[in-house]
Amino acid sequence: SLDRHVSPPWRLSGLTNSYVASVPAQQRLGKRCFAGSADAILQSLNLLRDEKPDIVVVVGADHVYRMDFSQMIAAHIESGAGVTLAATRQPTALA
């Protein structure tokens, strides 16, 4: 597809030799599109089953270009944890 063709020069994720896959709405569980972030992940689980990736990073689109995930992934692998989350502290007024 076009996004796989143009992805090598992007290097959006800070991960060398990695691919950033954008996932469009699939409407897999009914007649409506995603009903929020959690529903988007639920309806996209088939992609994980089909591709069987070693590492999966799930982020909102605005984080793809703002964060270098390589350090977080390295820490995740070293820890042996099942899941690793990244977060930043925000003042309550901005939350």
TrEMBL record:
InterPro entries: ADP-Glc_PPase, NTP_transferase_dom, Nucleotide-diphossugar_trans
UniProt-listed GO biological process terms: glycogen biosynthetic process
Gene3D superfamilies: Spore Coat Polysaccharide Biosynthesis Protein SpsA, Chain A
Domain of life: Bacteria
Sample GO molecular function, one term: glucose-1-phosphate adenylyltransferase activity
Record-annotated Nucleotidyl transferase domain positions: 20-90
Keywords: Glycogen biosynthesis, Nucleotidyltransferase, Transferase
Pfam families (UniProt xref): NTP_transferase
Stretches that traverse the bilayer: none
Protein family per UniProt: Belongs to the bacterial/plant glucose-1-phosphate adenylyltransferase family.
Protein name: Glucose-1-phosphate adenylyltransferase
